[in-house]
Each structure stands twice: as C-alpha cells, then as structure tokens.
Amino acid sequence: MTAQAVSLVSELPSIVETFRRGFASNSSVSSLCAILGGLAMLIAATSLAVRIQRRKQAPPQVDDPQALFEALLQTLKLARSERNVLRRRALNGGLAQPAAALLSPAIFDQMAMAADAMEARRADPPAPSTDEVLLRIRAALFGHGDSSSPIDGGAGAGSSPASAALASARSPSVPAPG
Predict the structure, then answer these.
(1) 28 partner at 20 to 30 Å CA-CA among 9, 22, 91, 136?
(2) CA-to-CA distance for 79 and 103, rounded, in angstroms?
(3) Contact 133, 85 (CB under 8 A)
C-alpha cells in the first residue's frame, strides 16, 4: 500500500498540469471533469494515507494462544528457569488457553495437577524443585495468603486476594439492618 501512495503522490504534478490545461482551454465541461477527477484523486490519496497511519498505530493482535502465553511470561519478568517450568507445565497440562493459568489460581492449580498426571504416566516425575518454583510463582501471581493449593498437598484451590476483591465488588452490597 505504501508503494501505491508513493505512486499517487508522484503523479500529482501530472494531475496539476491537467488542471492547468483544462482551465486554459476555457472548456467548462473539461474543467469540471478535471476538478472532479483531481478531487477524487486527492480524497483517495488522503484516505489511503489515513488507513496506512491507523494500521501502523494499531496494537498487534494476538490470535495464537501460545504467543499470548509467551507475551505474558515476558511481561511477568520471571527468571528463565521459572518460564521454562511454566512452559513445560502448560504443555503437559493440556490447556487450550495456557494464559488462563496466569490469571486464575484454580486454573493454575488445574494445570499443575494435569501436568503432574501426564508426567506420572510418562514415568517422568517432576523434580522436587519444580513444585517449589510453582509455589513461588503462584504466590507471586495470586498472593501469599492461600495455603490450600493442591500443588503443596492442600485441600483445594482457594481464592487469591484479587479474586476476593473482585467477588466482593460484584456482589450487591446489602445495607446493615438498623
């Protein structure tokens, strides 16, 4: 598209010359056609330039779940070893949207347990340090107050401070009886 805009701009002198000749011949029909043609070309060139500028300024769209997961891992600024653990767990956990594990403690725990099951079937048990890394990442993502994570043998996934705040914001406030 940029080449088209350049070619339109390079043809502007010839368009101006056409206008000049049309006005010089004093033909009202040819002058009107030249003016309308020139305006049409100017509008087309302006429209093209606006579209190119908008496309350059538009944020990139991520349609690939794995690319979104990788972008989130980069945003979290985790150590390479932590990113590798999460990548392996997301792959072995079988999540269609691995980025969801970074947003929900329940899905994070589900990913970890599914990956444990997959690795157990392959006779490839995770290293003990893997669970420690997962617990550290989970605490960083969802808060330290949740001790019910199944990663460390807890009873089930609890809610993070962020989840509790969101739940309280969603529930209608009931005034205290007075």
Answers:
(1) 9
(2) 19
(3) yes
Sign of CA dihedral 137, 141, 144, 148: negative
The Cα 146–Cα 105 span in angstroms is 9
Q: How far apart are CA 80 and CA 98, in angstroms?
A: 18
Instruction: Count Cβ atoms within 10 A of the Cβ of residue 147 and give its class: 0-12 exposed, 13-18 middle, 19 or more buried.
Output: exposed
Q: Note the helical H segments in the chain.
A: 2-10, 12-24, 28-57, 65-76, 80-93, 105-121, 128-142, 161-170
Name the nearest CA neighbour of 90 among 70, 75, 62, 74: 70
Question: Residue 37's closest CA among 13, 20, 49, 19?
Answer: 19
- CA distances (Å), 163 to each of 72, 76, 103, 150, 151, in order? 19, 19, 10, 18, 19
What tokens were used for 60?
A: 């990139």
Count of CB atoms situated within 10 Å of the CB of 42: 13
Per-residue pLDDT of the chain (178 residues; tens, 9 = 90+): 566 666 766 777 777 777 666 666 666 776 777 788 889 999 999 999 999 998 888 776 667 888 888 888 888 888 888 888 888 888 888 888 888 888 889 888 888 888 878 777 776 666 666 778 888 888 888 886 555 555 555 434 344 443 343 333 334 444 444 4
